[in-house]
Amino acid sequence: MNTRHAGAGFSLGTLIAVALSWSANHSILWAIIHGFLSWLYVIYYLMTRVL
């Protein structure tokens, strides 16, 4: 049995980063930028807003 997975798409980190960015900034441009940075932005958000 040979299984294949899609290589392109959004990762969980990207989706979380976009959601956090949108809720904080309400800006599509920032959401796109933070989506590219993905887990780096998620970690930054948690360190500055939660901790």
Structure description:
This protein has 51 residues and is mainly alpha-helical. Helices cover 71% and strands 0% of the residues. The chain contains 3 helices and no strands. Helix 1 (12-25) packs antiparallel against helix 2 (28-37) and helix 1 packs across helix 3 (39-50). The chain starts with 11 loop residues before the first helix and ends with a helix.
Radius of gyration: 13 Å
What distance lies between the first and last C-alpha atoms, to the nearest angstrom? 46 Å
* Global mean pLDDT: 83
In DSSP terms (H or I, runs of 4 or more residues), the helix count works out at 3
Q: Level of helix content?
A: over 70%
Broad structural category: mainly alpha
Major sheet details: none
Q: What are the segments in which pLDDT stays under 50 over at least 5 consecutive residues?
A: none
Note the topology.
Elements: H1 12-25, H2 28-37, H3 39-50
Question: Brief overview, please?
Answer:
Helices cover 71% and strands 0% of the residues. With 51 residues, it is mainly α. Helix 1 runs antiparallel to helix 2 (28-37) and helix 1 packs across helix 3 (39-50).
